[in-house]
Amino acid sequence: MAPFLRITLTAYEMGALPTMDSTPICAIRIKECVSTERGRTLVQKKSTMFPDWGSCFDAHIYEGRVIEVILMKSTEPLAKATMNVSALTERCRVSKNKNNSEFWMDLHPSGRIQITLQYFVEDTDIDNPKQSVRSPPQDGVLTLNKRRGAVKQPKIHAIKKHEFIATFFHQPTFCSVCKDFVWGFNKQGYRCRQCNAAIHKKCIEKIIYKCTKTATNSRDTMFQRERFNVDVPHRFKTYNYKSPTFCDHCGSLLWGLFKQGLKCDDCSMNVHSACEKKVANLCGVDQKMLAEVLSLIAQDSNKKQVESNDNGPEIGIYQDRSSISEPSAGGKDSSVRLDPPPGPTPQPCLHLTMNHLLFHKVLGKGSFGKVMLAELKGKGIFFAVKALKKDVVLMDDDIECTMVEKRVLSLAWNNPFLTHLYSTFQTR
User: Fold this and answer.
1) CB burial class (10 A; 0-12, 13-18, 19+) of residue 23?
2) pLDDT 10s per residue in the chain (428 long)?
């Protein structure tokens, strides 16, 4: 990473310019030196910035880079000046304030602004990272140490007091629910941060016991006792395993030459000595089968409720009298007829694909994908298309964040000042 300058606009003086009722706006344009067929020219690659007075912005130090400062009244430019980044860097290096400099810069045709500079360089000492973080600045140069402690916290799936985190298992691991092998690449399954239980991603909805770090007289034991009348503690005893065996709770291998773990005399459950206090009192209970039965019971109850609602229409107290037919001329009452109100005519939906769009250029890049400028063929309508890398989204377990972003953009359709979501699709 190249060294950069941190520039702060602190004050201004209008000089001979007419006085203003409001504070003027300062526009910053950073231009790069590009070689073309006609020679070198300055090109602005980034959008114009409008920093507030007293705020700062960063500018990396590249050869030929120029910063243009424009003092504006609303959209009308009043005065401007051009600064060379290399000259500003040299001013910081020769200053007596340890790479900090503060000076007034004259504007054309009149006025001036006060600028504060700070010079930073990237610390490239990777052989001894601890020394590079804690060592004082060398030669009076301030340094930014890597990402300055920025850490992305893993996403937590809270299920029945468990705190499951997508985990990459470095050794063969078995699921504590279905007892099958946890296979796959990258992050194969989930592991609870409190009780260390390892499960498949597909088995996260089949958890029936709550996590309380310990199973002795816990709320989980009371819950199972009241609902299912299940309160059968395990009878663990130290056991010598003659073949490789895996823990039925955390899923990892039972290490050691003798007395590797504990085994239940009734259900033959194998656990580590450290996992004994974290196992729920479910001796002889098949958690997977119990979860499937509970799901079937819930489906049957929902089905019966739907059937009861379909037996006949419910007539409200404030029903419209016009919807009820009049008695027939023969004197017999005709049946009540409820005419549903006419609904809107459904319009065909346009399903966009890659073939409907013509891509022109890349507008921006990020860690999840790109934003490209595209034109709808035959319509002359331009869109900003955000293309996401599905493998990166799945690897970081950010599917919910993507769906939340889609939902927010959908809700903002009626607001003329927000970005509107036109369509979503996926290629493969």
Assistant:
1) exposed
2) 567 888 888 888 888 888 878 888 889 999 888 888 777 888 888 888 888 888 888 888 888 889 999 988 878 888 888 888 888 888 888 877 777 888 888 888 888 888 888 888 755 444 444 444 334 444 444 444 545 555 667 788 888 778 888 888 888 888 888 888 888 777 888 888 888 888 888 888 888 777 756 444 455 555 555 455 566 788 888 888 888 888 888 888 888 888 888 999 888 888 888 888 888 777 877 777 777 777 777 666 666 665 655 555 544 444 444 544 455 444 444 445 555 555 555 555 667 888 888 999 998 887 778 899 999 888 888 989 999 888 777 766 677 778 888 888 888 777 777 788 888 888 87
Token couple for 69? 């400062």
In a domain, 342, yes or no: no
**Domain encompassing residue 82:** 4-122
Rounded distance between C-alpha atoms, residue 171 and residue 328, angstroms: 81
Does 219 fall in a domain?
no
Residue ranges for the known binding site are 386
Q: Could you tell me the CATH number of the domain that includes residue 79?
A: 2.60.40.150
pTM above 0.70, yes or no: no
Classify residue 233 by its DSSP letter: -
* CATH number of the CATH domain containing 405: 3.30.200.20
Burial class (CB in 10 A: 0-12, 13-18, 19+), 183: exposed
Of 70, 96, 122, at which residue does a domain stop?
122
DSSP structure string for 367-378? SSEEEEEEEETT
Cα separation, 49 vs 72, whole angstroms: 12
- List 84's β-bridge partners, or say none: 66
Binding residues for ATP, by number, are 386
User: Three-state SS for 119?
Assistant: strand
How many Å apart are CA 194 and CA 162, to the nearest integer? 7
- For residue 71, what are the β-bridge partners? 26, 79
Q: Structurally, how many domains does the chain consist of?
A: 2
Examine residue 261 and state whether it is found in any structural domain, yes or no: no
Domain's final residue, options 79, 102, 122: 122
